[in-house]
Amino acid sequence: MITRRELIFRIAGSATALLVPARLAFSQGISSRGVKPQPRGKPSGRPFLAHFTDVAREAGLKEPIVYGGLDLKNYIVEVVGAGVAFIDYDNDGWMDLFVLNGTKLEGDPPGVTNRLYKNNRDGTFSDVTAKAGLTRAGWASGVTVADYDNDGFDDIFITYYGHNVLYRNNGNGTFSDVTKQAGLWHSEVRYGSGCTWVDYDRDGRVDLFVANYLSTTLDK
Question: Could you tell me if residue 173 is left (phi over 0), alpha (psi between -120 and 50 degrees) or otherwise beta?
Fold first, then answer.
């Protein structure tokens, strides 16, 4: 077993992995690469009138996000967390919410899964995960939404520690796993991190860019 601290030092010790000293590996934020921070600008003097209230529970978004142990985390996969995406999956003009989830090293807790919440148009959401066919446990990481097949319905791509997945929107409130059919299946374990759709060649069809976090497995 390797701890997160040991992993960081090993990565920092490799010149091809990081270009910063090991002592800086614990600092927060993005590496500046030696660029000095600019002075903070003067306050505008304008009042900040925005006010936010946490209404997640009242809105029906109350299922827990599980990502590793509560009191102890031994691997970096347990501390990274997962993403979320807004998607109007049923084309009713109201944004729905897709929330990724993780798991635990000792096994999947009961009921743990990614969650699709349908917008009820009254400030609340309903959990339609099972009905939509999106029930899946694992170390989900990033998510990106686009209509990759140009059928008028947004589809979902998710990166995982393990195996990424592409869900095709069937247009009737359900999704199908088409990862293998789309040529996106890899048998080896990978640690997928970020992902995005982009029409890089401007042919009218979105292409997919996927980044891998590390070339590692939990048994190494």
Answer: left
Q: Which two tokens stand for residue 1?
A: 């077993």
Buried b (16+ CB within 10 A) or exposed e, 127-154: bbbeebbbebbbbbbbbbbbebeeeebb
Scanning the structure block, which residue is given the tokens 């903070």? 40
SS (H, E, C) 87-126: ECCCCCCCCEEEECCCCCCCCCCCCCCCEEEEECCCCCEE
pTM of the model: 0.77
pLDDT tens across 174-193, in order?
Answer: 999 999 999 999 998 889 98
Q: 117 to each of 96, 107, 145, 188, how far by Cα in Å?
A: 6, 25, 15, 31
pLDDT in tens, 97-143: 999 999 999 899 999 999 999 999 999 999 999 999 999 999 999 99
